[in-house]
Hints:
By secondary structure, the protein is of the alpha+beta class. The protein has one domain (3-183). 26% of the residues lie in helices and 24% in strands. The protein has 4 helices and 7 strands. The protein has helices spanning 3-18, 94-108, 162-171, 173-183, and strands at residues 25-29, 37-42, 49-55, 77-85, 117-119, 130-137, 152-161. Strands 1-2-3-4-7-6-5 form a 7-stranded mixed β-sheet, with helices on both faces. Strand 1 and strand 2 form a beta hairpin.
Amino acid sequence: MSVSESVVNAVRAHLISRFDGAEPVSASVTFLGVEPLDVLLFPPDDEGLVHYASLGCSRHPMGDPGELVADPNRGPRAELVLTLRGEAGVASGIQRTLAILAASPSVEGVVLVPDALIDLGEPLWTGVPFTAVLLGESDIPDLEVPEPAEPVKFLSVVPLTGTEAAWVRLRGADALREAWSEAGIDVQDPARSAASL
């Protein structure tokens, strides 16, 4: 088994363990020139939260697209986790959107890190005002993988409206999070209103 596939298998086991052994529903998404990405859907937990996780983004390290030769082992590795209250969007495009975000390191040379803003410019899934996402630290521990590979980080994905994305560009991610906190906004509610900024 190749290093990349062993990393993917370890990530899957790590996520299943994190979500109490629940077996996820898996959807595979393929983009031209990129190895297939899976999006795992974990059933609602005791709080009614549904978790979507990318699987395959960490197959290869993310590197500077300006580098002439990519290091096949060294460099940050990440997977994305989107948590929503209820099962809204299960069949309306969330999986494809998460796969697009997870493919961005391979396709566009994006390095996924906390506080990164990614604007897709179109609704993240059917019928929502969210067109961008803000990445952050998640409560899923890093996964150690055999050296020289770096640990896999699990980044939270928070949907943003266009106004909120503009706020991040102007004031920064922490300022938006503070505004959410002050307004009592549940960012895991897919029917939430935007922060008044």
